[in-house]
Amino acid sequence: MEAKPKRRGRQVLRSLAAAFVLLIVFMLGVNVGSGQISLARHRAPSAGLPGRLNYGSVNQVYQSLKDNYDGKLTEEQLENGLKHGLANSTKDPYTVYFTAKEAKDFNDDLNSTFSGIGAQLGQDKDGNIEIIAPIDGFPAQKAGLLPKDIITTINRQNTSGMSVDEAVSKIRGQAGSKVKLQAVRGHAQPLDFTITRQNIDLPSVKTKTLAGNIGYIQVTTFADDTADLFQKAAQQFKKDNVKGIVLDLRDDPGGLLDSAVKVSSLWLAPGQKILDEKQGSKVVDSQSSQGDDILHGIPTVVLINQGSASASEIVAGALRDNNAAYVIGEKSYGKGVVQQLINFKDGGQLKVTVASWYRPNGQSINHKGVTPDQIVKITPEQAKADQDPQLEAAQTYLNKN
């Protein structure tokens, strides 16, 4: 999920979201990851749609519900249902209406402050609810959930036809409470998980020094604090005269486009292209390096996997296409659509897909992902034994170059 500033504010991308689905609701959080979100900017209206909808038939349905429904309904419920329904009618998993509460949850999740199980949800091409990336060290990952796991039930409720937002709201809950999930992995038998929710408040950047004076920096999500934390880490790497850098974007579901651009800019000379946004075949916006390239020329490996989405794919693609980094790991998630975030007076928000983004080499990422220069997989046995052949491959590459 990503976002970039309009001129004030920001735009979140896949999310991918997500979009990053990237909605980028980080679940657990949000699928931010899901895509990219910005404060409103003018775009041409969709061709062929009327200036106003005819609500005659909608009122017929309302009257029938009012006269016949055996249960409680409130005016607020019905109005929110209409708003959610309008967004859902696009059949785009990244176009979502948020109530005021849902909008607050979305923004909390984007900055990794939420109570849940610590993973990002998305939808696959068949509309199934799936895990994009569990967050390292948190309940979902500890329970054994993996990227691409299909969530079939939540507390015994079937997820068929369920939106990502609905799934997220059912999985989230008070810290200390439990949620029961059933998941399908590949063609194996369903797996049952009972997971205890917890409060999750994460710094988005972690650093350490590896053997051979190699700087290691992990970005868990591209949040408000990412650019500043990354800048400080980059300055320290420069001061320490590191031999090389490992940029770990594995299981990073995305976040703010602005953060992704600033991070990429630390390697790229001013003016080098980071991405294009297109509507159809028309380029409507471009992002280029902002300068301050203090890491320029330092050998760098970017690590990605199936849980790398949206903003993390932007960075991996930009560094790879500008010959600033070598990419190792597995093909990334493939979230390459842009969302715009529109705020309403009542606190509600609409996250709407407005464009697709393209790598500097002209390739679309959506449903394709970034393919590493060197494919290295981690087997379940290696993961269980805390072995990391991807990181080992990165260190080997940097020690040879």
Explain what this protein looks like in three dimensions.
The protein has helices spanning about 55-70, 75-90, 100-110, 140-145, 165-170, 225-240, 255-265, 310-320, 380-385, 390-400; strands at about 1-5, 10-15, 25, 30, 35, 95-100, 115, 120-125, 130-135, 150-155, 155-160, 180-185, 190-195, 200, 205-210, 215-220, 245-250, 275-280, 280-290, 300-305, 325-330, 335-345, 350-360, 375. It has ten helices and 24 strands. The chain has a six-stranded mixed beta sheet with strand order 15-16-17-20-21-24, sandwiched between helices. Strands 6, 18, 19, 22 and 23 form a five-stranded antiparallel beta sheet that branches. It has a four-stranded antiparallel beta sheet with strand order 11-10-12-13. By secondary structure, the protein is of the alpha+beta class. It has a domain at about 205-335 and about 355-400: 2-enoyl-CoA Hydratase, Chain A, domain 1 (Alpha-Beta Complex), CATH 3.90.226. Strand 18 and strand 19 (about 280-290) form a beta hairpin.
